[in-house]
């Protein structure tokens, strides 16, 4: 005899939204590349040289990854990687302090609408905690989201590992099932993070580093023009 047990409905409402920052909710406008140029110069990499271009190509490819991991790949010693990462964070902080930091259109309204509907929203980043907080303070977002997490808050591994998304679930207790999780970002590494975490929604946005083809190849279940389209996607589920 066949299995006559009733089929279970596997559809899950979204309860927790994990949102990337730079390129997804915060305008990047080349700040990451400018901060990398600052760091590379500190380590003696000649601007415009083949080595500099190769490194910059890697930075673009790995947008969304923990920055210290990027520097560990680019430089042979831990001392150089740490020095490069510190110089990157300093350069980025200077750019933010000079006013080069703005929310992407619709980002604030999206977060408010999702939270008003009862969803929990967590902001995540590949930057260090101090840089993340600097951005949040520059935007006046201290009370906007429920929680903000950086790689150090998730054991040290950033994207593409699932740790940040799963840490958001564990820290908030907002979901009972990973399928109730939505992970949203502008990079392939964001998509790989969400897919590896088992998120029910892995949404890519076209306002940042990577295009639709890369986002889908790395696990996007949906590709949106911007984060402003997210409430329509999630609240209709």
UniProtKB/TrEMBL annotation:
Q: Which SUPFAM superfamilies match?
A: HAD-like
Identify one Pfam family in the record. Hydrolase
Q: Which PANTHER family match?
A: PHOSPHOGLYCOLATE PHOSPHATASE (PTHR43434), PHOSPHONOACETALDEHYDE HYDROLASE (PTHR43434:SF19)
- For this entry, the protein name equals Phosphonatase-like hydrolase
- Give the classification, highest ranks: Bacteria, Bacillati, Actinomycetota, Actinomycetes, Kitasatosporales
